[in-house]
Specification:
Length: 202
């Protein structure tokens, strides 16, 4: 018999051990590269005022809130998370900060939860490598994007890491994205220790 596939998504167990606020503090630690370079990450999404953008696996929403400023009051940002307490945290924080163009929703392991054809651009920052069902998620991502919509995947390579370490090599992401209906249009190394792959919906 074949062994069952390894579970990639370790976040459900991790989130059970702390509060939403404690995780937000970890995600938004100023020395954390993904937080420190959020402006550069947002820049790779080619956003303009009035666009509708999404983020999958948004955590505390630190990137999504930044993106909300970029699309402006006529635009919209929808952040997705599997963990209900993080969804609640993001919506509560956005309300406190007066972000009226932001909403957080709960996704599933096989669906973004975004409406079909709703998004101009979507970001996945250190979330793709945790997907237990990457092919199904890419299908859902493709469906959620408008024609020629942009998808940005920022993640960490596994080269030289232990077998149990998180991350996914860029070549594996590229193969999965191509099979999921995306064309790579660029690559960027702006975030230390991470790759940033930019795709357009075919």
């Amino acid at each position: 018999m074949q062994a069952p596939p390894a579970v990639r998504n370790a976040w459900e167990q991790a989130y059970a051990k702390g509060t939403a606020e404690s995780f937000a503090a970890t995600f938004e630690e100023p020395s954390r590269a993904l937080f420190r370079y959020r402006q550069a990450i947002a820049g790779l999404m080619q956003l303009k005022p009035g666009m509708t953008a999404g983020e999958v696996g948004a955590g505390s929403g630190y990137l999504s809130r930044f993106i909300a400023e970029k699309v402006g009051p006529t635009g919209r940002v929808i952040a997705n998370e599997l963990e209900p307490k993080m969804v609640e945290y993001m919506n509560s924080r956005a309300a406190k900060e007066g972000l009226k163009n932001f909403a957080a929703i709960q996704g599933t392991p096989v669906s973004t939860g975004f409406d079909a054809g709703a998004l101009d651009a979507v970001a996945l920052v250190y979330s793709f490598s945790f997907f237990d069902h990457p092919a199904e998620m890419l299908k859902s991502l493709n469906a959620s994007l408008k024609p020629n919509g942009l998808m940005l995947i920022v993640d960490s390579p596994r080269e030289g890491l232990a077998a149990t370490a998180p991350g996914m090599d860029a070549d594996e992401v590229l193969a999965l994205a191509a099979a999921g209906g995306f064309n790579r249009i660029g690559e960027n190394g702006v975030v230390p220790g991470h790759y940033a792959l930019i795709f357009r919906k075919k």
